[in-house]
Specification:
This protein has 387 residues and is of the alpha+beta class. It has 6 helices and 16 strands. It has helices at 2-11, 27-52, 164-174, 185-190, 192-198, 345-383; strands at residues 55-62, 69-78, 86-92, 97-98, 105-110, 116-120, 203-213, 217-223, 225-229, 232-236, 249-256, 270-272, 279-293, 299-313, 324-331, 334-341. Strands 1, 3, 4, 8, 13, 14, 15 and 16 form an 8-stranded mixed sheet that branches. Strands 6-5-7-2-11-12 form a 6-stranded antiparallel sheet, with no helix packed on it. Helix 2 runs antiparallel to helix 6.
Length: 387
């Protein structure tokens, strides 16, 4: 009975064996075997690398997140604009404004060769208290507390402006322009204009980050103290006593959020050379929310962006076209999800079987074609029919 069962199983053999005495080995078959084995090994190695390395899948979904903030990281170099002239502002369509931002921002003074002279976080110098002019008109005495005048820009009677920067800030809040700093005691003592002249011909590297609302808006780098005048955002450039500003710039880095592996930001390393006396350089950015999920499950909430550029000439004092570099950004309603994942072992095994079987089958067809073709030609030659 056992022999009958084994016989039935033997009859199901899909791979009948042929006696080795009936094999006919050829040179072409050996060459085809070598080539097919080499191809098989290459394809196997390629499939193994794909299995060992994670692959990234991309998915587009509607961004349903509401509120939140957007972090803008930047590193921009102005080779012909001194740090004392440069200010950073940010504003959005909700009406929120961040004028002359200084926190989380570092400015590096650079010489004409690009070497760093000084790195600082504050504005121009610090006040020197050498018998400064008091608010009441007299000079500071030893038994008095210093309280400098704001020159009509006080918000309250007890307000004091103890430095040139305080006076400029008070004027900014009033929407006034500070046309002649030499008439201001604080600015004259601190050598405001002298410091600006000392930095003539220098450049500035400004880097840091801004935390803004997650709505459309803009941030810009421009000379002068910024303030609102009749509902219009303007910069006070009269205090610098300059007719033109060179806004040649290089964007070393600009990102919206954390770094995403494999993503190259389109503005990194971009350089633009200023050719006209004054102008406004504008970048229009479309920010796309992006989530990158590592194979270990860790997620990075960040953004990608596309950009278009525009330049228009401007003249100093024209409120609608002040010189500077402007970045206008808007948020896309579509979110991109990148997910890293490994190919399953069964999928890898299936592909390996397909490689082995496919190469073996194709090489068998080629070998059969070559063998039978060679036999047919040989027979014709023997019969004298081949020409």
């Amino acid at each position: 009975m056992m022999d009958g069962v084994l016989g039935k199983i033997r009859s199901l053999d899909a791979y009948p064996k042929i006696n080795e005495d009936f094999y006919s080995r050829t040179l072409s078959g050996g060459l085809i075997t070598i080539v097919s084995s080499f191809v098989m090994v290459l394809l196997f190695i390629s499939e193994l690398r794909l299995y060992l390395n994670a692959v990234t899948e991309t998915q587009l979904v509607v961004d349903t997140a509401r509120g939140g903030t957007l972090r803008i990281n930047f590193d921009v170099t102005f080779p012909a604009l001194p740090c004392s002239l440069l200010s950073v502002d940010a504003m959005d369509i909700s009406g929120e404004q961040h004028l002359d931002v200084r926190h989380d921002i570092i400015k590096k003074r650079m010489d004409s060769h690009g070497n760093v002279i000084e790195a600082r976080q504050d504005g121009i110098g610090a006040p020197k208290i050498e018998r400064p002019l008091q608010k009441h008109g007299g000079r500071l005495e030893h038994n008095e507390t210093y309280c400098g005048s704001c020159y009509g820009a006080e918000a309250a009677d007890d307000d004091c402006c103890n430095s040139c920067e305080d006076v400029r800030e008070a004027y900014r809040k009033k929407g006034w322009a500070l046309s002649n700093p030499d008439l201001i005691d604080q600015c004259k003592r601190e050598g405001f204009l002298e410091r600006i002249k000392e930095e003539e011909g220098e450049g500035c590297n400004v880097y840091g980050f801004l935390e803004v609302n997650k709505v459309a808006g803009n941030f810009h780098f421009a000379p002068g103290k910024s303030f609102a005048q009749s509902g219009v955002h303007v910069h006070d450039v009269l205090a610098f006593q300059k007719d033109s500003f060179n806004i040649t710039h290089r964007i070393n880095r600009l990102t919206f959020g954390d770094y995403i592996p494999g993503v190259v930001n389109p503005l990194d390393g971009v350089h633009w050379t200023h050719a006209t006396p004054n102008g406004m350089y504008q970048y229009f950015l479309k920010v796309v929310p992006t989530v990158y999920t590592h194979v270990n499950g860790h997620s990075i909430q960040s953004n990608q962006f596309s950009v278009t550029e525009h330049f228009k000439t401007a003249s100093v004092g024209h409120l609608q076209m002040l010189p500077g570099v402007f970045f206008f950004y808007d948020l896309s309603p579509i979110k991109v999800n990148f997910t890293e994942q490994h190919i399953s072992f069964l999928h890898f095994l299936t592909n390996v079987c397909a490689i082995v079987g496919g190469v073996f089958t194709v090489s068998g067809i080629i070998d059969s074609f070559v063998y039978h073709g060679h036999r047919a030609i040989k027979k014709k030659i023997e019969l004298g029919k081949f020409s």
